[in-house]
């Protein structure tokens, strides 16, 4: 005999938990599996996503332009590869944070420009504020130990 139970928790994240109660002749077993349905709008942005949104905050850019702008914004610390860029762009686009601005043909090749949406600008602002709060807290604690970064916010 198998009985399936499903519960939905509508806390900060949409969480589905399922449990199956089975008997196999040796007794009853309960198996629970949490299943999370989250998007980039629910979780902190990855560093590449944050930097891509930052690059697009200035103006619409095509792929290579984003790679170069991310390198510039990160002062050379982050070098995106095309595979990473387009994987993150697909996810950002699916989540409504970026959209295609225009397409043009340059030397017989399609060049697609992306732009930040209103939701993308709001998400970038919220993430920037979150990271700034964390940086301030870290620098305050480090300063107490005499370790604070001199160029920091705290």
Low-confidence stretches: 1-18, 33-38
Distance between the termini: 61 Å
Helix content: 40-55%
The major sheet is characterized as: 3 strands, antiparallel
pLDDT averaged residue by residue: 80
Structural class: alpha+beta
Looking at the structure, the CATH topology of the largest domain is Arc Repressor Mutant, subunit A
Tally of DSSP helical segments: 4
Cα-atom Rg, whole angstroms? 22 Å
Q: β content, as a range?
A: 25-35%
Outline, from the CA principal axes? elongated
List how many beta strands DSSP finds: 6
Please report the first level of CATH classification, the CATH class of the largest domain: Mainly Alpha
Report on this model:
With 154 residues, the protein is an alpha+beta fold. The chain folds into two domains: 2-36; 47-143, Winged helix-like DNA-binding domain superfamily/Winged helix DNA-binding domain (Arc Repressor Mutant, subunit A). It is 41% helix and 31% strand. The protein has helices spanning 47-58, 63-73, 82-94, 118-144, and strands at 2-10, 14-23, 28-36, 61-62, 98-106, 109-116. It has a three-stranded antiparallel beta sheet with strand order 1-2-3, with no helix packed on it. A hairpin with a 2-residue loop joins strand 5 and strand 6 (109-116). Helix 1 packs across helix 2 (63-73) and helix 1 crosses helix 4 (118-144). The longest helix has 27 residues, at 118-144. It is elongated and about 60 Å long. It starts with a strand and ends in a 10-residue tail after the last helix. 16% of the residues are buried.
